[in-house]
């Protein structure tokens, strides 16, 4: 059941036995989906938080409580968690009950402002912050010695595009591809939306978290507002990497489901960082691959093209009443795929393995 919280900018509900979905109702209308995994039966187990939303400065009103995600996790009683805040667990000792804080671990699916907004508070708490190790330079935040020169993290976070200060935070661990971590999790490098796009598979619950890689165009918020969100690509996106990542996830899901089936278990699900939580993984992924194949083969042409920050962007969606996806990307990303396909030096196979030969 969805619990509508009128006094905080966060809605929270349980999505599986160990995971909660928190939706940030933010002033940028990004409505990022934040997932929080808590092992209820393991008292001192850490709270694992996938992304931190748009940050405390993005609240729609000053009157709200717990604008900082850290405060929400530490202080807001969640009904589906026995009316305990998600980061707190009770300890019964000598006839009394004491509340203890769980250690919090942040995993960033990538560095965009709507995913790292709350990182600073967790960094101050000395929480671990994990990010993709695919391209560490993309996330560098050390000064170059030129005060007016932006660091890569400043540039790539897109904070400037919405007038937000880049949160100060230290990445404590860069995750490798196919790295197993924190008991049941496995990281997968899935560049394309950005070079640092990271997917995480939860082996315990059979859920694949894909960040901003893809999600459905439409969703209803807990307050019944309907929102529409295109799959967005920034200037740092790459459709060559993207198509490879989609094929990589398809192969991964196929492998995992094959093993699950042989043990008589269920299909796996996908949860994204916008609009889409816990939907059958293979069905959604095959549908998004078909959509991008139609764009790349020219079957689906852009509906509009417009100039944004000095670059031409296009919008694609099927000419239907309620299409499942829409995408907005620099038009250049499509040309790059075409050039790669025409190049004899590069083999863009249907399995998505882009190999330099
Ligand atoms: Zn993003
Ligand atoms: Zn996002």
TrEMBL record:
InterPro entries reported for this sequence: Metallo-B-lactamas (IPR001279), NDM-1-like (IPR050855), RibonucZ/Hydroxyglut_hydro (IPR036866)
SUPFAM superfamilies linked to this entry: Metallo-hydrolase/oxidoreductase
Secretion signal, residue range per the UniProt entry: none
Transmembrane segments: none
Pfam families per the UniProt record, alphabetical: Lactamase_B
Superkingdom as given in the UniProt entry: Eukaryota
Residues covered by the Metallo-beta-lactamase domain: 31-263
Gene3D superfamilies reported in the protein's UniProt record: Ribonuclease Z/Hydroxyacylglutathione hydrolase-like (3.60.15.10)
PANTHER family tied to this protein: ACYL-COENZYME A THIOESTERASE MBLAC2, METALLO-BETA-LACTAMASE DOMAIN-CONTAINING
Name of this chain's protein: Metallo-beta-lactamase domain-containing protein
Naturally occurring in which organism (per UniProt): Carpinus fangiana
């Amino acid at each position: 059941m969805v619990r509508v919280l009128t006094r905080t900018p966060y809605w929270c509900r349980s999505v599986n036995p160990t995971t909660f979905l928190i939706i940030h109702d933010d002033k940028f209308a990004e409505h990022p989906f934040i997932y929080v995994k808590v092992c209820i039966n393991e008292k001192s187990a850490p709270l694992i938080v996938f992304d931190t939303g748009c940050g405390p400065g993005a609240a729609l009103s000053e009157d709200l409580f717990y604008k900082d995600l850290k405060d929400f996790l530490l202080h807001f009683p969640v009904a589906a968690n026995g009316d305990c805040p998600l980061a707190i667990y009770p300890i019964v000792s000598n006839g009394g009950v004491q509340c203890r804080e769980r250690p919090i671990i942040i995993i960033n699916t990538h560095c965009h402002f709507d995913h790292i907004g709350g990182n600073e508070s967790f960094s101050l708490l000395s929480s671990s912050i994990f990010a993709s190790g695919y391209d560490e330079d993309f996330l560098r935040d050390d000064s170059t010695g030129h005060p007016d020169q932006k660091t890569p993290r400043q540039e790539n976070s897109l904070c400037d595009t919405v007038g937000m200060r880049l949160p100060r935070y230290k990445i404590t661990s860069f995750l490798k591809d196919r790295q197993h971590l924190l008991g049941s999790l496995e990281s997968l490098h899935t560049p394309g939306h950005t070079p640092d796009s990271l997917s995480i598979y939860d082996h315990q619950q059979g859920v694949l978290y894909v960040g901003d890689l893809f999600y459905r165009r439409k969703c209803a918020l807990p307050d019944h507002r309907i929102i529409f969100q295109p799959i967005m690509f920034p200037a740092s996106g790459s459709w060559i990497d993207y198509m490879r990542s989609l094929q990589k996830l398809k192969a991964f899901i196929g492998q995992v489901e094959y093993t699950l089936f042989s043990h008589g278990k269920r299909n796996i699900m996908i949860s994204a960082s916008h609009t889409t939580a816990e939907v059958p993984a293979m069905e959604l992924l095959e549908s998004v691959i078909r959509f991008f194949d139609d764009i790349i083969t020219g079957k689906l042409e852009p509906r509009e093209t417009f100039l944004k920050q000095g670059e031409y962007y296009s919008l694609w969606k099927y000419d239907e009443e309620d299409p499942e996806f829409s995408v907005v990307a620099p038009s250049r990303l499509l040309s790059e795929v075409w050039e790669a396909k025409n190049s004899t030096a590069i083999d863009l196979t249907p399995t998505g393995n882009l190999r330099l030969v």
